[in-house]
Design brief:
single chain; 14 helices; mainly alpha; 329 residues; 2 domains; MetI-like fold
Length: 329
Amino acid sequence: MRNFILRRVFLGIFIVFFGALAVYTVIRSLPSSYVETIARQRAANPLSTKSYQEWLDQLNEVYGLNKGIVPGFVDWGGNAIRGNFGESWHYGVPVTEKFAEVIGISMVVNIITFFVQILIAIPLGILAARRQYTVTDYAITIFALMGISLPTFFLATILKYVFAIQLGWFPLYGLTGRFYTTMTPIMQLLDKGYHMVLPILTLMMLSVGGLMRYTRTNMLEVLNSDYIRTARAKGLPENVVINKHAFRNTLIPLVTTLSGILPSMFTGSQITETMYQIPGIGYIAYQALIRGDIPFAMFYLTFILLLTQVSLLAADIMYAVVDPRIRVN
């Protein structure tokens, strides 16, 4: 196991390195950037004595964009290893400072969504498998397919229209209300929770369908296995057969699916946060990306790469925990 983990760690570092290089190359190759926007603004200033090109050349030199892609990436990588990711061009503060400011919001939203998703999807998936081809199975399947098929922006728009505009139960967007600053700490916490209901509901409805269908499919496969028929032939109660024998083996393929959810907990949900204007890391990163903010975009996308590799490594280790038969030689 130790040798396997070491190999996976080195492979993960290799993937993160070349993934970050690919991201840097794409960002540097975009037709416009935040630097060009600033150069236009300064050149358009009546008091400016420099042309657009002069401002652009000066800013490119300041930010190191006058270098080639490989030398620029080497400089960025050297600073990143030392923990210096630079200052965000768009937000005007160090990248890590802005990240620490907004990451908590996305973590709260996605962690709540994660646990709600598990509590709903796995029991319903097992129930659908146990009652295959019944009304219950068809109803759960339809609900799951709706969650899988609906685009994020469409579902968010429908929920906002029904619950915010028509019924007026929840706010349309934002993280805090109008009188947030005058509230007590407990009321401020409740106000934020009130504003998070629709974003969490959106993320839950989008994610629960896939996990539900995956659980149903794997449970059906396990229930048709020989050892399940043997357990039933011995006269074991159905609850023991399902919970002790079938469910444990169903967890093995679910580990892979659940491990893929880890990166979303810390990287936010860009479309959902943007639709509800929740200032989490997904919304903040989206604003930085569309403005060509290279320092923030590089940090954010490299963080996603690193977190994905960590989640895949954790999934491989969890296989051995879930099923003792699995061992790495």
